[in-house]
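in:
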């Protein structure tokens, strides 16, 4: 079978790209190894909530609205948050953001990954130009030696997909990226991100909480039930493994102490998992009819929860460039079109990655002098309204224009 483009990876980024091109007239194949698990119908306990969540900003929300997926998310569940509280656990420095100060009703939404994935997959079912190959995986990719610069994608089920353009949306360990031999810059943080759903004694007040501890960064993210939060604890690998090995009482005690009892004690926790944290960035996103998007192109420290937002903007910009190219009579694999995508996305991704890396390193330093400087700087920044407003608007994606 012949397609105008083949998207490898049907997670949030790959599926959103396919949905964004649902009215383009292009013949698209989407290959995904696992169909998303349907979200539970009554997320009232720690066992019913996906342990993986994302903080979707306003730009991502607008993009998902435009492709028809947001209403499906809202019909299921999401948790808007209107406040952020960030503080240094080894000092007095703190920063707080409030939607009211920005003239907004909320800062963003916390959404379970499987809720977003399921909504996107349901929307994809309405796209007559997208052929879904799932569950299936890529066995081999063969470059066809002719003047059309095409690829033959061999699937495990024996089917073969011919295309001039492959989009790699297959995650941080991308098969396509490795096959195409993209050069990467990457390093291991020597940290794991421990994720879990917890029930707290006090309501979360629709606030996203983040504490910088001596063992890393601990975030409590509000879920629809007012006493349920999703936690992300970035900490050294050895400490993460010790947290995984604790029984329920030990873990709730350790977690309550690390969070300084901001929401009372932690009374219950769901399943835990620890995810190795690495920073990755491809030196280029495009190579002869192959394009990297999302985690295949870049992974970032979960410090500000921007990873999924960057990936969704990759999908938006690539779809935007393809549609603009079609209006000028250019095929989606046109080199200039793909180069424009790279020029639009690489600076923004690098800028966000650099900012998160700077914050991570700043809070990793534990010398008394640096602690004092860090706490003084946080408290000072908290009082400078226009600077805080600019930071918040950037993180929220308010200034990004989504067509």
């Amino acid at each position: 079978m012949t397609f105008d483009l083949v998207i490898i990876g049907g997670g949030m980024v790959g599926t959103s790209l396919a949905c964004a091109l649902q009215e383009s007239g292009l013949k698209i194949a989407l290959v995904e190894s696992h169909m998303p698990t349907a979200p539970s119908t009554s997320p009232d306990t720690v066992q019913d909530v996906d342990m993986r969540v994302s903080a979707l900003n306003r730009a991502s929300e607008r993009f998902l609205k435009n492709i028809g997926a947001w209403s499906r998310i809202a019909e299921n569940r999401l948790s808007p948050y209107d406040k952020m509280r960030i503080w240094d656990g080894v000092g007095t420095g703190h920063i707080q953001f409030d939607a009211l100060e920005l003239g907004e009703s909320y800062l963003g939404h916390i959404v379970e990954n499987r809720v977003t994935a399921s909504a996107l997959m349901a929307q994809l079912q309405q796209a007559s130009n997208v052929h879904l190959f799932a569950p299936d995986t890529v066995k081999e990719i063969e470059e066809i030696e002719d003047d059309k610069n095409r690829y033959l994608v061999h699937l495990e089920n024996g089917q073969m997909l011919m295309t001039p353009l492959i989009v790699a949306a297959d995650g941080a360990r991308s098969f396509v990226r490795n096959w195409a031999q993209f050069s990467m810059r990457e390093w291991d943080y020597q940290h794991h991100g421990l994720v879990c759903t917890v029930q707290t004694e006090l309501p979360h007040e629709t606030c996203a909480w983040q504490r910088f501890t001596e063992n890393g960064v601990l975030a409590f993210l509000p879920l629809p039930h007012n006493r349920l939060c999703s936690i992300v604890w970035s900490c050294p690998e050895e400490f993460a493994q010790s947290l995984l090995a604790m029984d329920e009482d030990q873990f709730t005690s350790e977690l309550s102490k690390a969070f300084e009892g901001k929401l009372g004690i932690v009374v219950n926790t769901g399943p835990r998992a620890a995810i190795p944290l690495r920073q990755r960035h491809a030196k280029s996103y495009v190579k002869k009819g192959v394009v990297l998007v999302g985690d295949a192109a870049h992974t970032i420290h979960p410090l500000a929860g921007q990873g999924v937002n960057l990936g969704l903007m990759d999908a938006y910009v690539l779809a935007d460039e393809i549609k603009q190219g079609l209006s000028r009579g250019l095929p989606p694999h046109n080199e200039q079109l793909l180069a424009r995508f790279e020029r639009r996305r690489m600076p923004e991704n690098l800028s966000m990655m650099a900012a998160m890396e700077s914050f991570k390193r700043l809070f990793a330093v534990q010398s008394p002098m640096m602690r004092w400087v860090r706490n003084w700087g946080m408290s000072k920044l908290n009082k400078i309204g226009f600077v805080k407003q600019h930071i918040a608007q950037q993180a929220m994606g308010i200034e990004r224009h989504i067509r």
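note: The longest strand covers residues 184-200.
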